Amino acid sequence: MKLLILDAGHCLSLALAREVNRRTDTELVIEQGVTITATQLHTIAPDAVIIPPLAQPLNMTPAAVGEHADAVERCLDACLAQEVPLVWCVSDQLYEDGFDEPIDEHVVPTPRDECLRRLVATGDRIRNEYHRHLIIRLGPLFALEGSHAWLNEIIDSLIEGQSVRAAEDVVCCPTSADAVAMALVGMLQQQASGANAWGAYHLAGTEPVSAFTFTSMVRTQLATHLEGRGEKVELGEVTALNHHHDAKLRRVLNCRRVLDVFGVHQKPWRLEVGRMLDAWCLMRDDQQDASTGESI
């Protein structure tokens, strides 16, 4: 199976590259740009095109969100012309006001924000015009590298002693980019084998949590890792932000369908953060060894 993913520097693109590198049944082509043409698709001949998400469209300018939506629709045109399946990953922020209960796949987002409505319109067009699509709604992605990675920004700020501000009144399900990459490969392998299970799916980490609690747990685990290495680092503090004073806003995705159809289990974000911090420590060792070698 050959996959094409756009936006080479995105954390999901990098995670997918790592996942494919450890497999023998999948080939990955990474496109630097954020869109693709029918001519390029004809030349590459992938089994699917994957578009990484805008991580926080609510915090982006209308122009940036509009450019992303336009790029997705150009990809749709190319996929239609070449009959190549399209996989579009989108942020849970499209459910702007959240829900009291976990959000099922059949619930199409109806945001008030104009930028988010532009993304929903793109999703509507995909659903209406092309059967062979997967719309993957994700919790907030985290990874150690790449754009939209979140976790790397938290770690860098804490290490530099900077205060990190995070919302205490928005509950979500942080999602490992590595876990998403693994799930996408598995889902597309099944589709290539005739599953024919197109449509919208939710994929997120387990344990709903506020961004403030998530960031605080990252700080705690980071401190533990550093202490275990014998390092004394004065980490920055985590400050709570509150935007919804009456009640907490919940964006919790119900991921039952992706389990029932494809057998994809959600990954606990705490375990994924711990694993990534282990990897971060190894990279820190390599950097320190390289620095010592250069000084010698």
TrEMBL record:
Domain RmlD-like substrate binding residue range list: 69-279
Top-level taxon of origin: Bacteria
Protein name in the entry: dTDP-4-dehydrorhamnose reductase
Organism (species): Vreelandella nanhaiensis
Lineage of producing organism: Bacteria, Pseudomonadati, Pseudomonadota, Gammaproteobacteria, Oceanospirillales
